[in-house]
């Protein structure tokens, strides 16, 4: 057992990795079974399969129906859920510490023994198609997926997590079973838990209950994306123009990610941020305006979002570009640096007060080859960032080619001049 300052780690002989972070002051445990597979790992004909498999794991095993699974966790007073991203899939439960054995047994049954029955696949295909339709009817969600596809059109990270109608509509038992066989192998699995739990006890449970085909970790080929300036508009008769402006950013393990967090917080991270003050408070041009960044294994993205009436779209894009140019040219002030640091440290500590948050941090970092730092280490990294670090990063990021996407009631040619 390899013990760090705040979590325990064991790699079983079959390749499964088990991580635990003790929280002796709580009476609950969050447990997640993580698979290193997401939308970026899919072939063209199976786009959306990672997310579809997430649905299918809840649809029954040889010994439990879908209703049995849901009723079982309800009887425990537990939380059961799952999520899929571009780089991983996670199945998790949050239970009282006395029900850990029970939760691990049922979660393991779900992911190891899912029937993938034809009738369940047919009905669940329709559910996912409705989910895609709902996403397309939600323009302030859709514009972010449009941005990723426009920024990274030739990179697997540009693919939508939900997949496409034509691929999802063709999923069947053979395709599902083949995908599961290739990706749901021991080397691709991380079991993470946080709460009032014994590491040795969880290792024993995983050895006995999580019986998957043995296989190595399926390593991804890292691809540095080629980004070109692009503008893309999806025409919809919406009341608002939904806007995303952004650039490619940093990898998940890049040491400048802490400077990026401060840059993000200063530009659009809250009600004291530059974009919020200029666009919402001073001009009243948007209700929602913010920035965010996403870090992946081989690249990342920095994005600004704003929703405004179509007649104000040009002005809002102009204000976004103005604030970007200011921070790229002059950096941030000492006051902004201090405020962003204190905000980030507060958010870090508050976010890690729940068992689920700590479990998620462990699992996500391990399954993506990330760096899992203690709270003290995170605070030290944030405190070490200087104004010069932020200024240098802003100049490089925002000096690169950028992308603009919109879901709005006009055509791409109408706003091409805004790029």
Characterize this entry briefly:
The chain is an alpha+beta fold and 419 residues long. The protein contains 16 helices and twelve strands.
Textual characterization of the structure:
The protein is of the alpha+beta class and 419 residues long. It folds into 2 domains: 2-209, 2-Layer Sandwich (Cytochrome Bc1 Complex, Chain A, domain 1); 230-418, Metalloenzyme, LuxS/M16 peptidase-like (Cytochrome Bc1 Complex, Chain A, domain 1), CATH 3.30.830. It contains 16 helices and 12 strands. It has helices spanning 49-56, 66-75, 100-113, 118-136, 139-151, 165-168, 173-183, 199-209, 257-268, 274-282, 313-330, 334-351, 355-367, 375-384, 387-398, 412-415, and strands at 2-3, 8-11, 17-22, 28-35, 79-84, 89-96, 189-195, 230-235, 241-248, 289-295, 300-308, 403-408. The strands form 2 sheets. It has a 7-stranded mixed sheet, with helices on both faces. It has a 5-stranded mixed sheet with strand order 8-12-9-11-10, with helices on both faces. β1 (2-3) and β2 form a beta hairpin. α9 (257-268) crosses α15 (387-398) and α11 packs across α15 (387-398). The longest helix is centred in the N-terminal third of the chain and has 19 residues, at 118-136. The relative contact order is 0.16.
Task: Give the SSE layout.
Blueprint: E1 2-3, E2 8-11, E3 17-22, E4 28-35, H1 49-56, H2 66-75, E5 79-84, E6 89-96, H3 100-113, H4 118-136, H5 139-151, H6 165-168, H7 173-183, E7 189-195, H8 199-209, E8 230-235, E9 241-248, H9 257-268, H10 274-282, E10 289-295, E11 300-308, H11 313-330, H12 334-351, H13 355-367, H14 375-384, H15 387-398, E12 403-408, H16 412-415
